[in-house]
Amino acid sequence: MIQALIGPIASLAGSWMEKKVTEQKSKSAVALAKAEAEAEVMKVAATHEAGWEKIMAKSSDNSWKDEAWTILFIIIIAMCFVPFTQPFVERGFAALSNTPSWFQYAVYASIAASFGLRGLKGMKK
User: What is the DSSP string of 60-116?
Assistant: First the structure.
């Protein structure tokens, strides 16, 4: 009688194990597909970003805005070391600290566009 029960119980246990193995394989396949899709999205995003930066660099070949910002920063920094110009720098920064936040962000965007978007990402970190 026990042998008559062992066969069906073993069959039932075997089918339960097969079901669990199939479920695990399915979960693994879904996880793999998700990881591959995310990797593809990241690859496409990086390709588009590199393309955009290439276009922006090419379009700014004849632009003076990079040089203008650089010259402005050099002048401001130099003025910090010349005693009779220091009060002007201090008053200028005091005036800038009272500007609306939208204006500050517009200046940040202008500088980031001039030096490239990678510079802005570095500032966020």
Answer: TTT--HHHHHHHHHHHHHHHTTSGGGHHHHHHHHHHHHTS-HHHHHHHHHHHHHHH-
Q: Indicate the DSSP class of residue 49.
A: H
Determine the Cα–Cα distance for residues 68 and 72; give it in Å rounded to an integer: 6
* Distance separating alpha carbons of residues 81 and 63, to the nearest angstrom: 30
**Sequence letter at residue 45:** A
CA–CA gap between residue 53 and residue 40 (Å, rounded): 20
| Amino acid 89: pLDDT | 94
pLDDT for position 96? 87
Mean pLDDT value of segment 16-28: 82
95, two tokens: 């005036």
